[in-house]
Amino acid sequence: MINSIQKNKIGLSVLALISLATFLLVLSLAQQNQLTTRPDDVPLRKEPNRTSKKIVSLKSDTKLTVLKRQNGWWYVRDSKDDTKGWVASWVANNTFLKKPTALSEATIVLDPGHGGSDTGALSYNNKYYEKTYTLKTALATRKELEKTGARVFMTRTTDVVVPLLYIPRQAEKYQADAQISFHFDASGTHNSASGISQYYYNSNSLTLVKSLSSSLNNLPLENRGYDSTPYLVIKDVSRPAVLLELGFIDSDKDLSYIKSSTYQEKVAKDIRSGLMNYIQSN
């Protein structure tokens, strides 16, 4: 009799644990499908892209139910009035943004050229590598763009080799609004050239390169302008893509800027400005 009671108690305990685990699992799954907007005026759109028609601007603390997900965009239902539409999840979930900017719903891919065993161009004394400063400048740019709420991806964040054919894949996968590759030039002769240049290839990148070229006129180095060149990273991609040459690393004058965090931050701010103008006009 005692053994029977003990067995029943054990059985009830196991059943209670299973019931509790099931309840917690259901609760967890339900919470995963709930979203509360953080910034004010989050756009609710008809389709999952920033150029789609805006249905309404959602106020901060709007309760939403997530119905499906697509490439970072979430199809949601407003729990209050049953309105349905798409929000950029990285905007709706942003914890520091008070209101979305023109860039907030944009997706930007930053590509710091070279890396790892591929040093890129070298300074005249071979002490400074292009790969080092493309990464520093791209990281500064990511920091600046993230202040606007934009979704930013990087092809590398450490000193590693990235195969050239891989670089356009992120832009294609996430349907990026812009892909920007960072490079530094070399003339092959010490102090024989100076300045910055911008390159594009596909016609859908012309407006982007013009906007960035205009904003980069603020840099202390001469802007040599933009041109169309079939570089692989900007040629084999359907998304708008540009390649920036931000100074000659074998020029003592340019190198003094290239190594400077002040110059890197200035580049970042100018790129943000150029992208802001580009997004607002497109």
UniProtKB/TrEMBL annotation:
> What InterPro entries does the record point to?
MurNAc-LAA_cat, N-acetylmuramoyl_amidase_3, SH3-like_bac-type
Q: What is its EC number?
A: 3.5.1.28
Q: Which CDD domains match?
A: MurNAc-LAA
User: Top enzyme class of this protein?
Assistant: hydrolase
Which PROSITE patterns does the protein's record reference? SH3B
Q: Does the keyword Zinc apply?
A: no
Q: Any idea which GO molecular function terms this record carries?
A: N-acetylmuramoyl-L-alanine amidase activity
Keyword Cell membrane in annotation: no
- Which Gene3D superfamilies did the record assign? SH3 Domains, Zn-dependent exopeptidases
Query: Keywords on this record?
Result: Cell wall biogenesis/degradation, Hydrolase
The residues covered by the SH3b domain are: 32-95
One Pfam family matching this protein: Amidase_3
Q: What is this protein called?
A: N-acetylmuramoyl-L-alanine amidase (AmiC)
What's the source species for this entry? Answer: Fructobacillus fructosus
